[in-house]
Design brief:
4-stranded antiparallel beta sheet, single chain
């Protein structure tokens, strides 16, 4: 149960780090470390658009929170991951979107490097 006191509530999240690693014969694993930088616990929906450096769309990625996760507490760091199609080693763009109850909390673009 959450009890909110006062009116100064901020739902906010930061991407602390991104990693990409090829998993042989499975795909490419993308990992995000996120920080709930707001002052309210919430359960984010996290997705991203993966594209080439030239802007060619590759795929939409949905990141999964652990099943037992019901919320991310303020100042808590949460690791999320997703397995995508197999990518060649190289540099890609990842547009991360974080939403909560249909509202956009964060939208930012990151350059990632995929390694073996």
């Amino acid at each position: 149960m959450n009890v909110l006191v006062g009116t100064d509530h901020h739902v906010d999240m930061e991407v602390r780090s991104i990693a990409a690693q090829i998993v042989e014969e499975e795909g490419t694993y993308l990992a995000l470390d996120l920080l709930n930088s707001g002052n309210v616990a919430f359960l984010p929906q996290i997705s991203a658009i993966l594209s080439t450096e030239q802007g060619e769309f590759i795929e939409r990625v949905n990141f999964e929170l652990p099943e037992e996760m019901t919320q991310v507490l303020p100042q808590q760091v949460q690791h999320v991951g997703a397995l995508t199609s197999l990518l060649e080693p190289g540099t890609y763009d990842l547009e991360v979107e974080i939403n909560h109850r249909g509202l956009e909390i964060l939208a930012e673009k990151h350059r990632i490097v995929v390694t073996n």
